[in-house]
Amino acid sequence: MPAQHKKLLFCTAGVLSFACALGTAAAVGSQLWVRGTILCTTGALLVNASGPELHKFIGDIQYGLFSGQRVRQCGLGGRPFQFSFFPDLLKIIPASIHVSVILFCTVLIVFALVGAGFFMFNAFGSPYETLHGPVGLYLWSFIACSCGCLIMILFSSEVKIHHLSEKIANFKEGSFTFKTHSEQFANSFWTILVCSLVHFLNALLIRFAGFEFPFSKSKDSGTITGAVDLMY
Fold first, then answer.
1. Closest CA to 17 of 129, 119, 122, 170
2. What share of the chain is helix, strand, coil (3-state, %, to 5)?
3. Residue 185, CB half-sphere, CA atoms under 13 Å: how many?
4. Which of 1, 59, 103, 228 yields a CA-CA distance of 20 to 30 A from 153?
5. Domain for residue 218, yes or no?
6. DSSP-assigned states of every residue in 4-27
7. What is the DSSP string of 127-182?
8. pTM of the model as a whole
9. For the chain, which residues score pLDDT lower than 50?
10. Using CA atoms in the order 23, 28, 29, 35, what is the torsion angle rounded to 10 degrees?
11. Is residue 102 part of a domain?
12. What CATH number should be reported for the domain holding residue 43?
């Protein structure tokens, strides 16, 4: 492939990696990872609510990695409540999983920036043989893509398996019990998915530029090298 085309591909991959770093950073600080509704079962059972009456006992909840908001409805109107994961909710959430999600988000941002820098270096500089060359580009893209996948898996398990929304809804509730009525992943969660796909696309761009995968080596070149060594 001509050098100009390779520069264009590397510049495109570098811009995409930088955009992913910015998108992940914005997602980390956002409260829109999960959005849903919560049902006040205690109030609904007391008045035997059903049909249209049930909406008076359905509140809203949304949260991210650090904070969120819930609006509880128990038949007397909505009452908003702001909460923070650190240190308020540490005793009721799976703290190890939650901290791991934040850690992998940080790693994803760092390696997305590193990948963007090396893509630009390979486009306009003289790439080295190891970390600055194809091996390094595959490595940064693979690490960033893997971190994105781990973030989605861990956070999904935290929400679905450990019932994170329900634990947050019942935080500091003595006489009322809330159940998750509905929940769905919001924009910031899907931003991580898009970033993971972009880093996978970057690896394909490297391959499209004409570089072989680091673990694939031609047998003929090894044979020729061995024959040349025997001559000396």
1. 119
2. 60, 15, 25
3. 16
4. 59
5. no
6. HHHHHHHHHHHHHHHHHHHHHHHH
7. --SSTTSHHHHHHHHHHHHHHHHHHHHHHHHHHHTTTHHHHHHTTT-SS--EEEEE
8. 0.82
9. 1-2, 128-130, 215-232
10. 100
11. yes
12. 1.20.140
Length of the chain in terms of residues written:
232
Query: Residue 42: exposed, middle, or buried by beta-carbon count in 10 A (0-12, 13-18, 19+)?
Result: middle
Instruction: Give me 191's structure tokens.
Output: 């931003």
Helix axes 95-124, 3-29, angle to 10 degrees: 160
For 110-151, how does the pLDDT look when each residue is reduced to its tens digit (9 = 90+)?
Answer: 999 988 888 888 777 755 444 556 777 888 888 999 999 999
What the block records as the tokens of 122 is 């390979």
Segments forming the whole domain that contains residue 10: 3-209
| Residue 160 falls inside a structural domain | yes
In a domain, 215, yes or no: no
Of 121, 138, 123, which Cα lies nearest the Cα of 214?
A: 138
Q: For 47, which DSSP code?
A: T
Please name the residue that has the structure tokens 């050098």. Answer: 3
